[in-house]
Task: structure prediction
Amino acid sequence: MRLVFLGPPGAGKGTQAGFICERYGIPQISTGDMLRAAIAADTDLGRKAKSIMDAGDLVPDDVIIGLVKDRIAEDDCKKGFLFDGFPRTVVQADAIREAGIHIEAVVEINVPDDEIVRRLSGRFIHHASGRTYHVIFNPPKVEGRDDVTGAPLTQRDDDREEAVRRRLETFHSQTAVLSTYFGGLSAEGGGGPVFITVDGTQAIDAVKTEILTLLEGVNAAG
Ligand code: AP5
Ligand code: MG
Result:
């Protein structure tokens, strides 16, 4: 299974990607998590990406495309993978096609902007794994601690309200068009990806059930 998750910041891509990757035994390829790991390791890439991410802008396409190509060449991607937060521009989407990578399904999670600001202000993450919580909607078992490792949870630097608003602008101006892009490929048929749209304002479990059910249909058809 090779999947793409589309949707605005805070739509629940990371949360749902965790469930789907576990179900299908495929790795979650989150370009945001990879960039945050580079920042934590203080690499050249991390130093370049930090100010761009904190401002809510996009890291240059060539950097991201190189990162993803290296990642999917690794052994654990042979069975498939889930792209979470990639592609984010038409140039990145074209790069997938030019590399001859066949995507079975694109899952778009829709959530309106006002709900997103509410979600991101309550988000806490386990930095090392990317596991994500919310103080109200998805609290950890022990306050402020990761369920699996017990390590302290932190907030992302780009979850400040100003950065969230800029990320939303960036999404609408550069990424939202991918809905039409993949919807069009799907409608053309000829082996294009199945395009699935999900209402991301439902409870986390309801979104999960809906995505899993729709993907079972894709699997059965393919
Ligand atoms: P990235 O890390 O990808 O951030 P994002 O797209 O802004 O998305 P988020 O991770 O903020 O949200 P999510 O959809 O994963 O939601 P989550 O599950 O956490 O990218 C960060 C930055 O890196 C970018 O701004 C850019 O600078 C750079 N970058 C990354 N990829 C790039 C690329 N391809 N090209 C260029 N630049 C790139 O959920 C959010 C919160 O809501 C959580 O607290 C969660 O618990 C809660 N929640 C989830 N679902 C529900 C629900 N159904 N009901 C209630 N609460 C819920
Ligand atoms: Mg995420």
In short: The pocket of magnesium ion (ligand 2) is lined by residues 13-14, 30, 32, 85 (CB under 6 Å). The chain has two domains: 2-26+79-217, 27-78. The first helix runs from residue 13 to 24. Residues 2-26+79-217 form a domain with the Rossmann fold fold (CATH 3.40.50.300).
